């Protein structure tokens, strides 16, 4: 049998000798060198191609796409602002003022007719008048029983503040909001809520409403889920008539078109067994894991409402806030709230007896962001509490006349807070520097004739509320939260083309 294979050369590597260089080994070396050159080319292309693509994309971006700004936004004074006050519950006119050291100017004021107890109505904001508003002096708005919208332009825009002089039910005056929560609403005969939507702009606005009860989201009627508010008008909706329910619930309001300021009037009717009383349920801008509520009285059947907006259950712990710190009392149970649920708890069942004896309020800490509120009765008057916003700029509030006190808390570190109170003519009637401890609360008694207050904290953000005591034929408690007054606007940096 013959072997058809080509002749092979046998290589022997002897010491001191090179292997014989035949034809076949030479071809192998050339193949090896060729493979090395191909590998080197692939590596080079792997390095060069991405760089070429990046350069090409950069050229395309330079030609057609704007580059993102690399500088933070700059601050400048506002050139346009709106402050809206809801309709009065009983009495008390609206007054305007400004943050100190703001030049100010004339403000255009529009006032809607008084609601006169009508549960559902649509009222117009007629053309108004111009009023001069200066810092630390009140400018009253005549015939202001209905909703009021104050608009400032140019130099009149920064630092505009408004308030209503009702002692036990002062509605909160603020600018339009696009997203906020109202917790602990009712739609039954003994506990009902009325929603008021004010559109200060010329064009129509649309408000989307989602409702959540003890078992999750509620099936609301279509006309309540989406409400159109015509331009420069006030839309009032009685929730007990639109969707009668015997359960407590929360509302998430989202403005999808235009600008709207929302207010909720909560009415408690013991059905012939006592006093019918109404107060404003204040909104919460966004759910949070630390919700501070100050001014709660130790009695009055206090009810805590907790809403979980998330998709997973949350756990909540109620801490007691004192002068020096916030702490969790022994034997305090942890609350569990399911996804999209609103639950109600009696604070007397949550906190041990005597735990709130020297307290100023509570701090609700949750494992994920939550929206909360507290409902109580003080001298048979409904008093509603919502979380306090953090204040970082000088805050100014318009106050009713009468006995009142200021509570300051929420400090992140020890700091001094400057408090100055003035009467209707701008005369300083009280001025004090108050030390606030981290986690603690400071209390300041204010004169009865103090109708405006300026609070400034430079070392740490703070939260604050003014508690106004009713008297005579109208006993009870009013709550005024401190809020930042809009003075500046953040203007984004736009890169030139």
TrEMBL record:
<keyword id="KW-0472">Membrane</keyword>
<feature type="transmembrane region" description="Helical">
    <location>
        <begin position="39"/>
        <end position="60"/>
    </location>
</feature>
<feature type="compositionally biased region" description="Basic and acidic residues">
    <location>
        <begin position="1"/>
        <end position="21"/>
    </location>
</feature>
<protein>
    <submittedName>
        <fullName>Uncharacterized protein</fullName>
    </submittedName>
</protein>
<dbReference type="InterPro" id="IPR043777">
    <property type="entry name" value="DUF5719"/>
</dbReference>
<keyword id="KW-1133">Transmembrane helix</keyword>
<keyword id="KW-0812">Transmembrane</keyword>
<dbReference type="Pfam" id="PF18986">
    <property type="entry name" value="DUF5719"/>
</dbReference>
<feature type="region of interest" description="Disordered">
    <location>
        <begin position="1"/>
        <end position="35"/>
    </location>
</feature>
